[in-house]
Structures
1.
Amino acid sequence: MKITVRAFARFREFFGGQFDIEVPEHARVRDAVRAIARSRPGGGEVLLDAEGDVQRSVIVLVNRARVAGEARETLRLEEGDEITIYPPVAGG
Amino acid sequence: MIEVIRQDFDPGVLIDSARKPGTGAVVSFLGVVRDDGITSMDLEAYEEVARDELSRIRDRAMERFGLETVTIVHRIGTLAVGDHIVLIVVGASHRAAAFSACEFIIDSIKESVPIWKKEYTAEGARWVPGEHG
């Protein structure tokens, strides 16, 4: 199924600001982030830790709602969902 | 008023507009681009989510401190040293609540609003590291 990816700041520079990726039906957030990581050489070092899980410093939103805790790995996605990744914020 | 905008703003006008009949204290915080040896700074935002999050922070502050008014304006785009970055104006009945609320709002912005800064220097560019994950 197809999901839309949005990325900001240094992740936007690395992966692009908005694009679609294909993931398996009922893919979880972790699967999507791994697919994003595979979309560019070296992407794994940017988004994943040594175990292939999402780095703690990567902030993840699904359909504009922040995903926290265990759901960062396990929340299941639906066709057409929008997943957003960005680094820690630095405004103000 | 909650805004994420490219154009500059007039702090005096926004501070004046915070006054209501029940207001006894207006406290403002104005963030400006510091000269850290930079030539310019780019501010990037996830604009829709940034506005939503600023509105949530305003609502929390209004409820927690019993405020009369809250104005938050945050700029994005390319800024130079000395330019305005962010203005917070808090109107309250008494000063203690206004001071506390203003600090609460700027601390909350730095913690959760999706805005990032990239600094440009003679040697190149660097992202300002965020303090909160």
2.
Amino acid sequence: MRKLFAIVGREWRAYFFSPLAYVILAAFLLVNGYIFAVIVNYLNNPMNAKSQALPFLFTNTFFWIFNLFFTPLIAMRLFAEERKAGTLEILLTSPVSEGTVVLGKFLGAVGFFLTLWLPTLVYVAILRSQTPIDLGPVAASYLGVALIGAYFLSIGTFASTLTKNQIVAAIVAFAIILVVFSMGLIENMVNDPSKRDVFAYFNLWDHMEDFTRGVVDTRRLVYYLSAMAFFLFLTAVSVAAKKETP
Amino acid sequence: MIRDVFPGIWFILPRFLFAVSYMIEVENLSKRYPAGLAVDSVTFSVKEGEIVGFLGPNGAGKTTTMRVLTGFLPPTSGTARVAGHDIVTHSNAARAAIGYLPESAAVYPEMRVREYLAFRARLEGVSGGAVRDRVAQAVDLCLLEEVASRKIENLSKGFRQRTALAAALVHQPPVLILDEPTIGLDPVQIIKIREMIRQLGRNRAVLLSTHILPEVEAVCDRVLIIDRGRIVAEGTPSELRLKLAGTPIVRASFRGEVAATEALSGLRGVASVDVVTGPEETRVRLTCLQGSDPREEVFRVAVERGWVLRELLKEGMTLEDVFVRLTQHEPSAPAAEPGGEAASAPPQGAQA
């Protein structure tokens, strides 16, 4: 456990030593600052329903663009960088299992992702000081953000083991994430209700809307957690397989 | 059977019988890459307090063997035990006993030296309270005090290498596996690192790979020469020289034209005499019997006859010659121009 924390801590800190992290952080805050301005603008109109305001932070198009584009960029360095620099040899010859290495790196990336969202709590605090806000849906929204982010990052972690080139890793991750994401959107294109149900199971956009309403559906939790476990398992297998041919 | 009940028996038993503790035991270890066999049933052992040099040309299988021992690569066949733990079935225990300096000496460039050492200590399972002490000891041992709070990426190659070495021994492992520890360092740094390794080797088992011959002579108690995946020779540096020395050769040259053949062929210990005579100089090559040294006799003859002796030397076999002879693959070519006894610094030393 101590070893896992050592890896998580190192990975999380490593982000803040690279310029990319600050570019992502700045872009993220810029976009969310804009969204917040839109929300404030919306609340200025007394005709609008106040309860609709905050969910907008999590269900707008920028939210998805951010998640689709930036999670691959966050995860791409996890293994690709270490394989290129040769430092992976250190991790894999330490008395630490491959699973621990994979989990540690993944959690480090999730930690960085959550750090990005930390400043947005200020928006919640500001809105709450001006207008009554139910904290239940807010908590559920952040849970949804964490789950979807972690899901995408698990895909990114896997893609990062496939190559020494970080850009290639990011592109592969983006491709897989895009497939996973758009699979759910097919729901809106089919009419057969039984097929709709199947695609609805993958419809992340709708899931997120549920979360913002404060609905924490166990089916969603099972889907995200099992998908994450699946990709992390693939990651561990990929790391082990790469040992054969260094 | 008995092995299942008491898996350590094959490790414990020899200890009782010979009272020697082997920290690294390798048995018929092979590693096959898709491209071919990199390590071909290698067997050797290293005991505590011993520094063993793993010597071989580039691509001979040194790094592969070390990577198998450290658990980075799985072996294709054969077994190895490190501190009594099988590297395949008890990989974690074996890895915990090893301090490994990879060939690349890779370190995380963005971390500070002390921070990196603390990370490595935690990764090796050193408990929270002891981390500080262990890091301080490693910093002391590797003389890193002056750079301990600097970022690794801003350090010189020598300090970086020492940081990697410090990281390999921060958890105070009983076994050290060092892959080319002095590569890319300047001569002063090389001497420092070698001293450090000698000191570390007193109470540990050290396996050290190199293709630099003076390094082996300077540091190692025993040498394994590996070539194309096979161990071709094993012994102390002097044993190897003796074993493979062949017949000694004495060269001499005299001013002017002298009747060397007639005068020298009768000397004790001389098997045959080759003479090249020129108007300026007479050059003589004496092939001697094993163990004989007729140099003083040659000098006496020269004095008696009033010849001017310009040169007189015995060609001993340096470890370099042994190495070249063993790892050279064209059977027809003789061991390359052997250096004289006086030539004690082969060119590889300067290049490193």
